Amino acid sequence: MIENSKLITYAKNHGTPLYVYDGDLIIQKYKGLYELIDYPKLKVLYAMKANYNVGILKLLKKHNAYLDTVSPAEVFLALKLGYENEKILFTSNNITDEEMHEVQATGVLFNIGALSSLEKYGKYYPGSNVCIRFNPDVYAGENKYVQTAGALTKFGILMSDVDKVIDIAKNYNLKIIGLHEHTGSGIGTTEQVFESMNNLLSLAAKEKFPDLQFIDFGGGLKVNYTPLARVIDWKYFGKKVGELFREFCKDYGKELYMYFEPGKYIVAESGYLIIEVNTLKNNRGRLIAGTNSGFNHLIRPLLYGSYHHIENLTNPNGVKKVYDVCGNICESGDCFAEQRELPEIREGDLLTIKTAGAYCYSMGSLYNLRSMPTEILVFDDKEIVVTQKISNQKLAEQIIKSSNFESI
Ligand code: LLP
């Protein structure tokens, strides 16, 4: 945890809104999984969609991290930062031919979750190695938008289509070296993880998949956003996962690699968004704290109704009152919290929005033409500016530069 006094200092040094990431915690969480999961041939792939901050990616690389990527640009960013292609898995989704060729040229392994994409990949690149994403038929995740398995999801190949997968692979001489599933984000109980694992493992018999090198159980490891959230027994999780997989490998006749690809678990708790209150209103008794950030910087409360803990950094002992903490975007839904009890807020107070390391900056936008905040990474007692907020003037110039309007 970064102390509040330090967050205030960072805000003074770099201005607000400001994202702060605790690099030491990120490494602790990443490496901690290797200690937690009781299985020696383990690879943890950081799902870089959670936060593609290059400082975080470089830091993880120093600690030998693997990556889960979902777009060609994510693959290119990882390669440019020095990740070797064999440390990257590319999980495609509605892939175009052009994207397929772009990524294939990098030598990164494809994880394919649609029969038609597999057929296309086989036609273009017969004889390749490939990983197959199945839908493990378990509904789990923090809300319906992040449940990525079960009857209605767009993700993965149905387990009942396993023979079709095998036929396509045979036709094109594809070597299936990995099987994959991802159940959802923020999976509520360990039992749901085990159920997904068992479902996928039930498909993975040697007769059907003789060339397996690994099985990837996806991400979704839960993070506590609220102090009252149900606590996961991670020790039990790590032990049980190891047991399940060992048992499977015994039947399979070979010690395969086990992959997990968490995003939130590694980075969510490391992040803080520091914002400043500049406008207070009393709207017929409803107190509204207007800030200098908005859902263009952190959309999870608006999009998913997610809870993010907020603290008043500069008046922590103020009398508690109930506030709507809102942003500066021209939409009524632009609130970080509604009817939240907080120590009295004054104009000029700094607030911190916590657990903001995953899917916050990375889901940001330039909506209302407001630039994204500065991001700093703190590790080993260093304080590094990784991305710098660009000025309003520069942003306007950039829009013009990247457009072609002169002929209009
Ligand atoms: N692997 C695959 C194939 C995924 O689709 C995802 C996330 C992950 C791994 C990492 O999941 P995690 O460990 O981070 O839960 N924007 C949402 C989360 C979307 C997750 C999408 N897929 C949120 O803010 O809650």
UniProtKB/TrEMBL annotation:
It catalyses: meso-2,6-diaminopimelate + H(+) = L-lysine + CO2. Residues 39-268 form the Orn/DAP/Arg decarboxylase 2 N-terminal domain. It comes from the Bacteria. The active site is at residue 330. InterPro entries: Ala_racemase/Decarboxylase_C, DAP_deCOOHase_LysA, De-COase2_C, De-COase2_N, Orn/DAP/Arg_de-COase, PLP-binding_barrel. Gene3D superfamilies: Alanine racemase (3.20.20.10), Lyase, Ornithine Decarboxylase, Chain A, domain 1 (2.40.37.10). The keyword Amino-acid biosynthesis applies. Its EC number is 4.1.1.20. Pathway: Amino-acid biosynthesis; L-lysine biosynthesis via DAP pathway; L-lysine from DL-2,6-diaminopimelate: step 1/1. It holds the Pfam family Orn_Arg_deC_N. Keywords: Amino-acid biosynthesis, Decarboxylase, Lyase, Lysine biosynthesis, Pyridoxal phosphate. Signal peptide: none annotated. Residues 19-357 form the Orn/DAP/Arg decarboxylase 2 C-terminal domain. This is Diaminopimelate decarboxylase. It comes from Stygiobacter electus.
